[in-house]
Amino acid sequence: MTIIFAFLIFSFLIFIHEFGHFLASKCLKTGVDEFSIGFGPKIVQKKFKGTMYSLRWLPLGGYCAIEGEEETEEKKDSASSYQNKKPWQKIIILSIFLFFFQFFYSYFYLIYICNSCNVFIN
């Protein structure tokens, strides 16, 4: 049971990490080609507003494929390409996951402390 719980927590942390990149990209009007949870063959795939969302068989990872992150000629001229963003925007897209980790870690840690100290009285 502990292994399953650890596996679920790890998968949740990966989701939060990748979702941070995704959200920052969308807020800064950068295209996201694909947002995926897991690796390997696709279980479910759906395209919505230009982004392919997919769930894959091995939930030990995930990725957010940002448009223009790979230097290809076909999307280099696009206004929504990562390559055409200002340096401060690139830094936000790549480092926003630190904020997400800190927020969720602090939130769950406070819940744990409050519950273990009986702060919440029923």
Number of helices: 2
According to DSSP, the number of beta strands is: 2
What share of residues are in beta strands?
25-35%
Which strand order spans the largest sheet, edge to edge or round the barrel?
A: 1-2
Please state the average pLDDT score: 78
Q: What can you see in these coordinates?
A:
There is one protein chain. The chain has a two-stranded antiparallel sheet. Strand 1 and strand 2 form a beta hairpin. The model has no long low-confidence stretch (mean pLDDT 78). The chain has one domain (2-116). It is of the alpha+beta class and 122 residues long. Helix 1 (2-27) packs antiparallel against helix 2. 46% of the residues lie in helices and 27% in strands.
Task: Note the main attributes of this structure.
2 helices, 46% helix, single chain, two-stranded antiparallel sheet, alpha+beta
